[in-house]
Amino acid sequence: MKRLFIVSLIIVFAISLAAQQPEWCKKLPRPAYAKLERVPNADGWFQVYRIRPGVFAIYEPWQLEEVISYLILGSNRALLFDTGMGISNIQAVVAGLTRLPVSVVNSHTHNDHVGDNWRFNDIYGMDTDFTRTNARGSKDDAQAELAPGQLCRSLPEGFDAKAYSTKPFHITHSLHDGDKIDLGGRRLKVIATPGHTPDAIALLDEKNGLLFTGDSFYLGPIYLYRPETDLDAYVASMQELAALTPHLQLLLPSHNVPVAEPAYLPKVVSAIQQVRRGQVKAIITDGKHEYVFGDFSFLMR
Ligand SMILES: [Zn+2]
Q: How many angstroms does the Cα of residue 93 sit away from the middle of ligand 1?
């Protein structure tokens, strides 16, 4: 009888552990979102916010990456800057926001930014081997996104976790540093920002002072530990972005929060230079070195 009691205690404990949310979920909703204009959408996996006229952030809050894709409208076409995790259908969300033809441009081709590329037939890709390799699809990085502790909410109904992968996609236009994409009444300039990955870019909307920074900058731990990361290139790219600061009104990063002050850019440059000079003490986070500077940090090998 006593043994039965202990066994049932263990079972109850295990169930309550499983039901407990991971620690990071307690940060949600992030306070910055209270000030943003929420746009209703049918798919509960995504949240949509209007950041500026014709600029929507499409946020996936329930997975640890908290990835943000952007829909940017012109008068005759729309650009989707990243397609998210590929866990639910971003194309349906986009179709609810615009009837314009949509071209996909990726901030870089990590799995959490290209997950729904396969649904689109007009895709710009940087002219790098890294991009071409990732366009073939992959499974390991996608599967890692579903590991214990990565989710704050159950996955969408009908989602097949075991089969989850980054599906291959077809690049229809090759993209280079300095290219300009005309959406009609809005021009976006491509700025190559290699570092986080070889194919990382930022998009500059010069007229409106908007800079879409991709993963080169966001408020949170910036990942600089993967084998494809090049720190020298990262510093040079951030210096190039920081030089734009006087002409910018807003940064729109690809994770966590879709708005940040341009004044962060020069701070990031000086922070990464201090780290590289060995002037900053790291804390060890998941076996990686994290260098913390207030509301952003660098996660390095
Ligand atoms: Zn990335």
A: 22
Cα–Cα distance between 269 and 177 in angstroms, integer?
21
Residue 13: per-residue pLDDT: 45
Q: 13 CA distance to ligand 1 centroid (A)?
A: 36
Looking at the domain assignment, is residue 214 inside a domain?
yes
Q: CA 297, CA 262: separation in Å to the nearest integer?
A: 16
Kindly report the CATH number assigned to the domain that includes residue 195: 3.60.15.10
Q: What is the pTM of this model?
A: 0.93
Q: Which among 47, 52, 104 is positioned nearest to 81, based on CA atoms? A: 104
15 vs 171: CA distance, rounded Å:
45
Does residue 2 lie within any of the structural domains? Answer: no
pLDDT of residue 29 exceeding 90, the answer is: yes
Asked whether residue 16 is assigned to any structural domain, the reply reads no
Amino acid of residue 280:
V
The protein residues having their C-beta less than 5 angstroms from ligand 1 (an ion) are 110, 215
Closest CA relative to residue 177, chosen from 199, 192, 193: 192
